[in-house]
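Hey all, quick one. A colleague (J.T.) asked me to put the NAP job into the tracker so the inputs and the structure tokens live in one place instead of scattered across chat threads. No bug as far as I know, just bookkeeping. Sequence used:
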Amino acid sequence: MGLLQNKTAVITGGNSGIGYATAADFLEKGAKVLITGRRPDAVQQAVDALGNGTDSFIADQGKIEDAAKLAEYVRDRYGKIDILFVNAGGGKFGNFADVTEEVFDSMMDSNLKGAFFTVQHLLPLINDGGTIILLSSVNAYAGMPGSAVYSATKAGLNSLGRTLSRELAGRKIRVNVVNPGPIDTPIFEKAGIPREALNHELLAARMPLGRLGLPEEVAKLVSFLSSDEASFITGAEYNVDGGLTVHPLIA
Ligand code: NAP
């Protein structure tokens, strides 16, 4: 019997990268999975590739009305769910002085406000004893130049996770936060950093384990935290960063 047998999961931003890899891992471990995304073609492609047991719903995490529609769909289709993985996110990097209000609002809307209201709308549908995982980043702590808005959105998620873990403990809903380091996904290109310019070799050389992480390596932690094997873990944060955070000065 799979680790997540008989569980139903919702993953936001499941058409790519960590969300997609987690959907694949959840399915392999026996869960039913609904992924969300904002681009119908990309979402459909992911559903086709993930295969049996995958459902989808088009929702932009930056729009609160979409969170309400998602909750309505989930209620009608499943009644209750066991796992909510709030993974959707991304953003642009650049000098603090150049950040416009528009860029600030769009990243806050998608990464923090949208995550907050996604949890709020889906919470009544999460079974007692269920689990919520928020996908943050080591950027929440790293002080990386050029990441002021992105890092602030992620730090907000770490705070939200701690608060919710206490608020929801009465319902035995466990809430945990995962902080990845650099993981090899399309997020860099989407942030305006072309693959050639990213200089994977230089980045890898700064990592104690000598490489970027794989989305599957984050997915395995999310699966564990979502399972009953993690039954006494709540209000916690885990780095998946190849040792970057504890050795930030290693070049
Ligand atoms: P990715 O491959 O770009 O995946 C991000 C997913 O979220 C995509 O499916 C994307 O859809 C979706 N998404 C983004 N904004 C959305 C919105 N407003 N509404 C709905 N869906 C949205 O990147 P990833 O690396 O897997 O990122 C997953 C999460 O990990 C993000 O929260 C990111 O901040 C975090 N993270 C990543 C790294 C890293 O190094 N890769 C490190 C730390 C944290 P589209 O395809 O339409 O863009």
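Adding what we noticed when we looked at it: The beta strands are 8-11, 32-37, 54-58, 81-86, 126-135, 174-180, 237-240. The mean pLDDT is 95.
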